[in-house]
Design brief:
Two copies of one chain form a homodimer. With 362 residues, chain A is of the alpha/beta class. Chain A has two domains: 10-18 and 254-354, Lyase, Ornithine Decarboxylase, Chain A, domain 1, CATH 2.40.37.20; 39-244, TIM Barrel. Chain A has helices at residues 22-37, 53-61, 72-80, 95-105, 117-130, 153-164, 186-209, 225-228, 247-251, 331-335, and strands at 17-21, 42-43, 67-69, 85-91, 109-114, 134-139, 168-175, 216-219, 236-237, 260-270, 273-276, 291-294, 298-303, 308-312, 323-327, 340-345, 348-354. The mean pLDDT of chain A is 97.
Chain lengths: 362, 362
């Protein structure tokens, strides 16, 4: 872990290094917490972005009602760190995973998404065998076209089935407007998000009309929290990226502070081209190139496996060994490439936090 | 590590799981070894792809003269596994890394690429201080436009400088024809590769004419090994992907056996669309979508962070819980997302091998 780095200036770190600016992180967590403190909806931050129990606990202590995970293995890590109220916002299928899930349910308040009656039956059987009560949310497809049942009759039929299955406790519904969170124009984003949340809340109305209690209505992301978080009927929002932030959310105008950067180093220079020691194994490319924030006047044009290609655009000369700092375009997948955060305050490393749920894909 | 999986059928693994077919791997290693056994050039397999000392040792025992690494941290892992002759085919810059490098040189025969006189001076000073002799290859830019000095006078000047620096031992030169390895048309690939190797060998000729011995001329990759491996003057080839193979090399006609797959599981189905539990944290997208090899008649159309989208193209119906097997499009970066290989023979897991150099980006 980078040889006792506490007290080093971030540019003296062995590179590439994933850095997290502590004041920016604290400010983001506090700002989002305040937003939800003033509203009926609560915050259940998605931990798939930061993958770090330390940050999850900061969010909980600031007022979050629980956390969200994408994978069971992430939930196991968070539970081991003492976190109890955990939503796994995905289907858990297969006998090995379901067995792990009900074991986790024995020592945490885990919830899981369901969109298939056969899967619900498997969960019920395992929960009964283990003697636990497993909390369940129905996943509703609110327009993204990924997982989830359709609003209306299909949702109602599944809700009825889940309600009658022993070992399961139907807590409510969830729906993710993933097709909306990145829409650049805010008014269009609002329109698509409200359409999605209308579908979600219509399912709540239908179920309650039929006598099925819906305590939780969960949705939302960093790109839509101001919309979802104000939508009548939504009880909690799963935003995750706001804590660390990344380039893609900056591009669509989300103004949380960029806490996450990669510090890399120039390893070769030819004229107006510099090569850094950060490639596809350090920065992910699916949302475009990372933004160079130091030095100014240089641009990342391409990533190969182990190298990044910088082009000079009016910046100072670079030399072999010079540090370069970049904001990743996609925090979630970039963080997943790293084993630890170098936590920095006033540019000096003050802590190293393990990214304990990195690689937790199962 | 997936709960004592030895003896399980691969489709019963907790998913997603990175699988390696042992017979295919053995066949690939043996076939490449035979190819080089019959030629003047030797094989120095690149371990940045597999990142696994177990596989590196299989390659060495089959006849490889040493291994190649991309990063110092990978070389440290390989040296800890008892491997001595290691080329780090990159520049090592920065005081912390150089200090690690000369410490590694004290218990292995590590070689490093150099393309800058100031960096060579830093390496020399550190090697002297540590009392080791550091082996060096000059990196030549053979047309890729990444790292490396230009052939001709610039190369000669750097060779002279390195030769006179205490603590350094100039062993030869290297040049990677990365701009050629993926050219789909083989004749065009041959033309570009031969042009690159002509530049590389011209540097050897120039240096030897000036009295500087060049023992090693290193280059090549899986896409070009039949060209580079036969080019007069090239002494060793750094091919790496051939052992595990991947989709991109299959697409350009490289016919090593596809040993590497990901076994995933269907978590949600709506008509002709199935969602699997493998997304961007399990499969990398920069060379396109992974190829579905089981079941036939389904296609991967899109990856989001935690999900893969399959579309039915004549295949059988899929249900929640069904296994799906895919060949990753890019082995190097996909392997880097996983902690272990599930080694399979006749579809049954026989071993779990740690991907010990995963995440070794420094």
């Amino acid at each position: 872990m980078n040889g006792y780095p506490i007290g080093l200036h971030k540019w003296d770190l062995d590179t590439p290094a994933l850095c997290l600016d502590a004041p920016a992180l604290e400010q983001n967590i506090s700002r989002m917490a305040k937003y939800f403190a003033e509203r009926p909806a609560s915050l259940r931050p998605h931990s798939k972005t930061h993958k770090c129990p330390t940050i999850a606990w900061m969010q909980l202590r600031a007022g979050a009602i629980g956390i969200t995970c994408a994978k069971l293995a992430e939930a196991e890590v968070m539970a081991q760190a003492g976190i109890r109220d955990i939503l796994i916002a995905n289907q858990i299928v297969g006998i090995r995973k379901i067995s792990r899930l009900v074991n986790l349910a024995a020592y945490s308040e885990v919830m899981v998404a369901v969109d298939d009656p056969a899967n619900a039956e498997d969960l019920s059987a395992a929960a009964q065998a283990k003697g636990v009560r497993l909390r369940v949310l129905l996943e509703i497809d609110v327009g993204m076209g990924r997982c989830g049942v359709a609003p209306g009759e299909e949702a109602l039929a599944l809700a009825r089935r889940v309600s009658e299955l022993p070992g399961l406790c139907l807590e409510g519904i969830m729906g993710y407007e993933g097709h909306a969170v990145m829409i650049p124009d805010f008014e269009e984003r609002r329109r698509v998000t409200e359409e999605a949340m209308a579908k979600l809340v219509s399912v709540r109305d239908l179920l309650e009309e039929k006598g099925i209690e819906v305590k939780i209505v969960s949705g939302g992301g960093t790109g839509t929290y101001t919309i979802t978080g104000n939508y009548p009927g939504v009880t909690e929002v799963q935003a995750g990226s706001y804590a660390t932030m990344d380039g893609q959310y900056r591009r669509v105008g989300i103004d949380f502070a960029p806490a996450l950067t990669v510090v890399a180093r120039v390893i070769s220079v030819r004229g107006d081209r510099a090569i850094i020691d950060a490639g596809l194994k350090t920065l992910t490319p699916e949302f475009g190139m990372a933004e160079v924030v130091h030095p100014e006047g240089w641009e990342l044009t391409r990533l190969s496996e182990e190298h990044g290609f910088l082009r000079r655009k009016g910046g100072p000369e670079l030399h072999s060994g010079d540090p370069v700092e970049l904001i990743p375009s996609h925090g979630c997948t970039t963080i997943n490439l790293h084993d630890e955060y170098y936590v920095v305050r006033d540019d000096v490393v003050e802590a190293v936090w393990p990214i304990a749920a990195r690689g937790c894909i199962r």
